[in-house]
Amino acid sequence: MLTNVILGSNDLERSAAFYDGLLALLGARQVMRNDRSILWKGPDDGVGLAVCRPYDEQPARHGNGSMVGLKAHSIDDVARIHGTALRLGGRCEGPPGERRPGVHAAYFRDPDGNKFGVFHIVAAA
């Protein structure tokens, strides 16, 4: 059901040092890093944990820069889940579409403002 958990960070280097040490105890390692975010996954490549600088460039705080990632089973599911969220009172944070080659996503907030992304990764041929 989940693809990842993202937490806001005001200092990626400090976060990297903390999570590298902590998550190594669980067999996880960095699998992606750029100037805005870092992602760790364990040996099973299951649910990952990421830290990021908030997209809106405001300071990270509870809920700002945080998002729950949901795993869709198809590209159509991405749109279906996003549409259902909006019909149930959610707010669009990014319509369904391909975000990078092979990665389809949509973003929304629930009625309380909690941010979600729904993702489908197309298997390589």
Automatic annotation (TrEMBL):
User: Boundaries of each VOC domain copy?
Assistant: 1-121
**InterPro entries (UniProt xref):** Glyas_Bleomycin-R_OHBP_Dase, Glyas_Fos-R_dOase_dom, VOC_core
Q: Which Gene3D superfamilies match?
A: 2,3-Dihydroxybiphenyl 1,2-Dioxygenase, domain 1 (3.10.180.10)
Which superkingdom, per the lineage?
Bacteria
What is one Pfam family matched by this protein? Glyoxalase
**PANTHER family with a match to the protein in the record:** BLL2941 PROTEIN, GLYOXALASE FAMILY PROTEIN (AFU_ORTHOLOGUE AFUA_5G14830)
Protein's name in the database: Glyoxalase
Q: What is the lineage of its organism?
A: Bacteria, Pseudomonadati, Pseudomonadota, Gammaproteobacteria, Lysobacterales
